[in-house]
Amino acid sequence: MTHAMSGEELRRYREQRGMNQQELVSWLNDHLGRRYDRAKISRWETGSERIPQTVAAALKDGTRPTGIPAAVVAGRAPLVFCAANQKGGVAKTTTCVNVAWLLGREGRRVLLIDCDPQANATVHLGIDPHDREVAKATLTHALRSTRPMREFVTPVCDGVFDLLPSSISLAATDRELLRQPNGTLILRAKVAQLAGHYDFVVLDCPPHLGELTVSVLNAADQLLIPTQTEMLSMMGIPQLFETIVAVRELVNPRLEILGILPTMYSPRRLQDEQVMADLNELATAENLRLFSPVRRAADYTKSVMAGRPGLAMNANSAGAESYREIAAALLALHPVTAQEEAGRGA
């Protein structure tokens, strides 16, 4: 295992090679597929932030930490995953943030795109939506711009994965999509530009079936349906099924349902037990996977206040096993190729 690199070691490494901070940033971003900046290097060198092990490994052996040659992965499309339910408050954002964290911890290149005007994922990860809006670095601007989408992302969680933030301005974009020819295909086209740059793209949906959610479904490969173990949450699933059928027939035949995730589950409540039985019946009838339920826990509320994924703060939080099941299912669907494996050993 690569030992921790100190800020002084990093500065010495850079100076011995005659590099300034911007040159080091460029080298790291090229070799790791990240979006670091000079401010991040400064924080590492002063010791105000810990240097990620992936960065230390890249600097010490001078190669990509994954060992995957850039030429091999250049054109590979990422697997696009989303979580959707027309009912709000079902832990969509918590699910996306923690699954993105787990995939990133596996060494995969991950981008989480916040597609919700409420910017819950953005806030959850400690990013100020207003600041990003002022900087014109949100999904709103990415969808309107001719620049590559990856130019709008920012690293989070010490570079474990990247985030394309959202802000309230995205609410207007939902209406704009209605007025544009093929407006709901813009996100799909933008995500297609990320081939070779990310292994997984995670899309966090708004809590309703508007044009933004349809845009997400048009772009996605795998859909997870989180549902709180209460009847109102479950009632939205049949309508979502209808939307999925329409999306498959008209736009995106590759869209598949990864499964159903029960959330905010309390085994002591009779209602929760009844809804779990109903969900099991529904999953069986539709031939869908029913993931282990996520129990109610305070850890995830605390993690929002800390600007971190819950599992980054406590790997054994309630629901950890459920999120690991989801991450494992996605990794199985998008494994490292034989060429990439060969690259790792090169």
Automatic annotation (TrEMBL):
The family database entries (Pfam families) matched by this protein are listed as: AAA_31, HTH_31
Q: Specify the AAA domain's residue ranges.
A: 82-257
What InterPro entries is this protein classified in?
AAA_dom, Cro/C1-type_HTH, DNA_Partitioning_ATPase, Lambda_DNA-bd_dom_sf, P-loop_NTPase
Looking up SUPFAM superfamilies in the UniProt record yields: lambda repressor-like DNA-binding domains, P-loop containing nucleoside triphosphate hydrolases
Name of the protein this chain belongs to? AAA family ATPase
